[in-house]
């Protein structure tokens, strides 16, 4: 079960984990609230989720020192 959890957390961009760490609450709680809000609003928080995932990947990319070199 833990292997499945780690696989899902790695493939889910880590947005809920990041938000949970910043707000000081468990990432599982953030995931549950995100799922509940998504059902209530018919999926509109997905736009925020994908934007946050994109932003976190860009931040991670720049933190690692891999910058894009334009020719």
Judging from the principal axes of the Cα atoms, what is the shape? globular
Radius of gyration: 14 Å
Task: Give the helix level as a range of percent.
Answer: over 70%
N-C termini distance: 47 Å
What structural class is derived from the secondary structure elements?
mainly alpha
Note the main sheet: none
Uncertain residue ranges: none
The number of distinct helices, counting runs of at least 4 residues, comes to 4
Strand fraction:
under 5%
SSE series: HHHH
Structure description:
The protein starts with a helix and ends in an 8-residue tail after the last helix. With 71 residues, the chain is mainly alpha-helical. The radius of gyration is 14 Å and the shape is globular. The relative contact order is 0.11. The longest helix has 19 residues, at 45-63. It has one domain (2-63). The chain has helices at residues 2-11, 15-23, 27-40, 45-63. Helix 2 (15-23) crosses helix 3.
Question: Would you kindly provide a brief summary of this structure?
Answer:
This protein has helices at about 1-10, 15-25, 25-40, 45-65. With about 70 residues, the chain is mainly α.
Overview features:
mainly alpha; single chain; 71 residues
How are the SSEs ordered, and which strands pair?
Layout: H1 2-11, H2 15-23, H3 27-40, H4 45-63
């Amino acid at each position: 079960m833990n292997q499945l959890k780690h696989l899902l957390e790695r493939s889910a961009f880590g947005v809920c984990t990041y938000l949970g760490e910043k707000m000081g609450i468990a990432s599982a709680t953030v995931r549950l609230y995100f799922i509940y809000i998504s059902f209530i609003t018919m999926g509109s928080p997905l736009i925020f989720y994908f934007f946050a995932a994109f932003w976190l990947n860009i931040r991670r990319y720049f933190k690692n020192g891999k910058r894009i070199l334009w020719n």
